[in-house]
Structures are given as C-alpha cells and as structure tokens.
Amino acid sequence: MKENLKNQKHFLAAMYLRLSRDDNATKGSSITKGENVAKRGNTAGITGVKSESNSITSQRELIRAYIQRQPDIELYDIYVDDGFSGSNFERPEFKRMMDDVEAGRVNCIIVKDLSRFGRDYIESGRYIQRIFPALGVRFIALTDHFDSLCADVGESGIVLPVKNFINDSYCRDISMKVKSQLAVKRKAGEYLAAFAVYGYRKSAEDKNRLTIDDYAAEIVRRIFEWKISGMAMAAIAEKLNALHVLSPREYKKSLGLNYRGGFSGGGEAKWSSSAVKRILTNEVYVGHLLQGKTEKINYKIKKNVEKPKEEWIRVENTHEPIISTSDFEIVQNLLRADGRISPEKGEVSPFMGLLFCGDCGEQMVRRTSRYRDSCKIYYICSTKNRGEGCSRHSIEESRLAELVETAVCSYVNALLQQEKLFQKARGQEANLEAVIGCQREMTRLRGERDKYLKLCKSLHEDLQQGIVTKEEFERLYGEFWRKAERLGQAQEMQEELIRKMFQSGVSCAGRLTEFRDTLKLGKVDRHTLVSLVKRIHVYEKKRIRIDFYFQDEYQIMQDYTESGRQENEEGRGA
Predict the structure, then answer these.
(1) I need a labelling partner for 304 at 20 to 30 A (CA). Which of 58, 316, 353, 441 fits?
(2) How far is Cα 523 from Cα 529, in angstroms, rounded to an integer?
(3) What is the spatial distance between Cα 27 and Cα 267, in angstroms, rounded to a whole number?
(4) Beta-strand (E) ranges in 279-353?
(5) How would you class 341 by CB atoms within 10 Å of its CB: exposed for 0-12, middle for 13-18, buried for 19 or more?
(6) How far is CA 326 from the centre of its chain?
(7) CB–CB of 113/141 below 8 Å?
(8) For every residue of 363-389, which 3-state class applies, written as one string?
(9) What angle do CA 532, 537, 539 make, to 5 degrees?
(10) What DSSP element (H or E) covers 19?
C-alpha cells in the first residue's frame, strides 16, 4: 500500500488539531470549523465559530505554513477537538475526519506531533501502522519528523512505537495526578461537581463552596415538610408540578446554565418520585458533602463505575444547612418504612411507618373490620398476616392513639420542665465539663486508663528493685502503655460524642416548645408524632414501648441538672 502512496502525485490534506482540557488554560482567537478550502469549494460553509486556545492557533499556523511549502499537498479541511483528551478516540471532529477519509475525500492527515493525534499507545499505533496504510492515507507528524510516505522500517517499527508509548505513559501519569488532586480537594470539603445541587449555588468568591439559593432552598424545605406530614413522594411530585414549580433540571436551565441531567429525556423535565427521593436522601441539605461515589475504570475508558460506600468521601459541616439534622433523620426513618394513603379517609395514617411488632420486629399492618354500620380499625403483625408465624399483636387504632398521646405528652412535659436549664445552658456551655464528669462511661474509661498508667509507673519501681528483668519491663510497659493510649483515645471520642449531644440537647429545647400548643389540645397530630417518635413497638395484651428522639440529649440534660445540684450543695457547704 505504501507503493500506492508513492505513486500519488497530489494529496488532499486534513489538518487535525487537538487540545485537552488540562492543557486548555487560556482562550485566544477563533477558527472557522467546517472550512472547505479544496476542490469542493465552499459547499460546507461556516458551521460554527468556537473560541479556541492559543495552542490550537499555534498548531494551525505551523501546519498551514508547512502545507504552503508543499506543492503536492492541498488543504481540504480543518478538524479541531478543543477540550478533548488524547487517551481515547471518542472525539467528534476526529470521527468527522475519519468519515471524510473513508469516503475518499481525504488521503493525507497532518498533525503537529504524535501526542496531538492521540496518547493511547495501542490505538495510535493501530491507526498509523495499519488503518491509514490500508486506506492509502499519508500521515505526517511535523515536530516528530515522521512522514509515512518516506519513513523507513526503523522509524515505523521502532521510533514511532516508542514515542507513542511515551505519550501513553504521560497520559497515564497525568490521570493519576489529577485523580490524586481531586481526592485531596474532596477530603478538604471542596465541592467539585460541575453544577451546584438544587437548593444551592456556587459561591461567587469560591466556586468550590456552596451558598444557599433562597428560592430553591424554600422548595427543598417544603418537600421535607410535606414528607414529614405524610405525603408520598409521588404526591409531592404531583403537587410541585400542579404548582408549576420548575424541576431541578429546568430551574438550572432557567438560570442560563448549560445543564443536561442524566435522569430525563427530551422535552421539559417534570418533577418525579425519583427526583423527590434524591432530595429527601441527600445529606448535602444538612451541610455535609458526600463525594467520590463513582470513578472511571481507567484513563482510557470514560465509563464510570460505582465505588463501595466505605470508599466515599464524606466531610461534615462544609456549608450552611437548609434542613435540620433532626428533620433529616425523621425523613430517613419514614422512607425506610413508607406506607400508603388510607382508602377510607383519603389521607395517611398517623402511625404509618412507625408501628412494629415488639417480638418479630416486622411492621404492623392496618386492617379495617366492618359490621353493619360500625367500622373498627386495628393493626396486626405483618408476619402473622402472611401466615408465617408470630402472633397477631392486635391493637385498635383508637386505643393505640390514647396510649401514644399519653406517653408523648408525658415525655414532652418532662423535657419542658427542664426548659430553664436548657436556656441557662445556652450561656454556660463551660458547664459541659461538669456534665462530662458525670458520665458513667467516661468514669469507667478514665479509671481504666489511670489503672494502666499506674501499672506503667509501678513497673519502673519493679525494674529498679530487680523484681522484673529489662526484657519483661519493655514487653509489659509497651503493652500497658498501648492500652492506656487506646483508652485515652476512646475517652476523647466519648467526650466529643457528649459534647455534640449536649449541644443538640440545648437546641432541642426550642424545637420542643413548638409542640406546646398541640399538647394543650390533647391531640397529637402526624407532624408532632413523627417529629418525636422513632418507633412504636407493639406487644401482646395491648402493651406498647416507644423509642423517642432526644432520649440521649435528655439524659445529658439530666446529668447537667445533677451536676448543677452538686455544685449548689458544695457551695452551701463551703
């Protein structure tokens, strides 16, 4: 086939230019793409004008000057892939060029150097050494001084593969460096996605920080409120569409962003259950970033694969939250045990997602019994309902409501009695140290650690008295010291846990006062119930056990109360 190339007297050349995003630092002049300067005339015309980098401009001028010095070469068209990696050949202008080659319109390809053509060692070699010779195409890489028309065996078989291999290695090295840099940025809490998540905007001062978008954030708050009130995700989506609220995709487009979501097809994107669920389950709304969920298979393949959850990068408190942590936790609990709307009342049951069998742990199911004009609503164990064992654990809804309302009112009233202490704690957080001192686990950890430190001290005395050898001393001392260090770390973790719980306990006071008016009416509504109750366990003989939110915080405040009482007694004694 090379003989055929030598016999050709005239070549129609494709000028191929490429620059990757990593190299594309500055923008310069523009180029007319689709420019036809050969025998076909101007039939293609101008297909678009694209801002290009100075590097693209220099490539173009270098190749144009070369062609002007070659009487046997005529420029057919210019093909520009600006912003495309050389690690693969999935590039729009490269594909257009190959279409022209296969159609016989181009029989010569000119690039500045081999790296501009491609950095994939295997694929670049396949094109240059197999495909182009088979198609009768001359290939020229100017600064690498390679011309397939006159290249000898050494250049084609040795020099060319070596240069392609170096280019491939460079691409792999760049890929590894970029991946490492992105991981560092994620761990530092920098937001790296191309577009801000719905409800936020990218900060004008720092594009890697999120700031609240007031309009979209209000929509997010409504979505969470509706879910807590008992609405299904499909119903929330329908309501948003009925209110003509723009979906996240359409809202981004309305802001002038060139956003293309991967969750909808053509036409105007509407709200859907999946869109609502993505919002309800996204930790970004409580101020945390969770990134690095996917990664490319390798630097040559664009396809992304899911990473194991333990490898995701999670950084807390990176930006201002839209949703409180307690509301977010409530919604997650509801999503794990979602239910359906009652067909009788056309509304969700107040106990939906909260009732569980006290013995087998399965959800309770709602049943209706009708007799003449009477209607009785009750709940039974779903395991028993399926005929798979357990017992009915039957309880009427009216009786359940009475028991739950009594328990909830009693719990909240007990917490509200601590209101003065909550308020006092806001301005006296230094007393947290007194709270920490009262914790049983803290006391145990501190005692264990002190024991091993004392053992370390006594070992020094035993060594001096000759009770233990030096080898025994080093072995035992190292073992005791390591245990003391581990206990010290556990103590620090426990202190941090108590600190967070204390601060949460202080903040929950204001939240509890929101329910005061509801409790005075003696009726616990759905919103109040799911805001206070994690689970309701139903046992035989109509007994129930309730897991409340704020139980740990309540214990912390009780310890705080106790520490304050001890301080007062000590003060009076002094």
Answers:
(1) 316
(2) 10
(3) 33
(4) 289-291, 294-298, 301-306, 313-315
(5) middle
(6) 20
(7) yes
(8) EEEEEEEEECCEEEEEEEEHHHHCCCC
(9) 150
(10) strand 11-19
CB contact set of 330 (below 8 Å; sequence gap of 6+): 228, 530, 531, 549
Q: Please name which of 391, 390, 348 lies closest in space to residue 366, comparing C-alpha atoms.
A: 348
pLDDT of residue 37: 43
**What pLDDT was estimated at residue 217?**
93
State the DSSP string of 527-572. HHHHHHEEEEEEEGGGEEEEEETTHHHHHHHHHHHHHHHHHHHHHH
Q: Are 34 and 48 in contact (CB under 8 A)?
A: yes
518 vs 260: CA distance, rounded Å = 45
Q: What phi and psi, each to the nearest 5 degrees, are found at residue 220?
A: -60, -45
Q: Which two tokens stand for residue 127?
A: 């094109």
* CB neighbour list of residue 368: distance below 8 Å, 6 or more residues apart: 344, 375, 376, 377
Between the alpha carbon of residue 539 and those of residues 169, 359, 377, 379, 391, the distances in Å are: 66, 7, 17, 11, 10
Distance CA 143, CA 551 (A): 73
Task: Give the whole-angstrom CA distance, residue 40 versus residue 35.
Answer: 11
Dist CA 49 CA 17 (whole Å): 15
Instruction: Say if residues 88 and 300 touch (Cβ distance below 8 Å).
Output: yes
Q: In 3D, which of 346, 363, 345 has the Cα closest to residue 355?
A: 363
Q: Judge contact between 444 and 490, C-beta under 8 A.
A: no
Grouping H, G, I as helix, E, B as strand and the rest as coil, residue 357 is strand
Structural tokens at position 336: 């794990």
In a 3-state reduction of DSSP, which class is residue 43? coil
For residue 486, the surrounding DSSP H or E stretch is helix 470-513
Tell me if 74 sits within 8 A of 13, measured CB to CB. yes
Q: How long is the chain?
A: 574
- 140 forms beta bridges with 110, 147
DSSP string across 438-473:
H-HHHHHHHHHHHHHHHHHHHHHHHHHHTSS-HHHH
Residue 556: exposed, middle, or buried by beta-carbon count in 10 A (0-12, 13-18, 19+)? Answer: buried
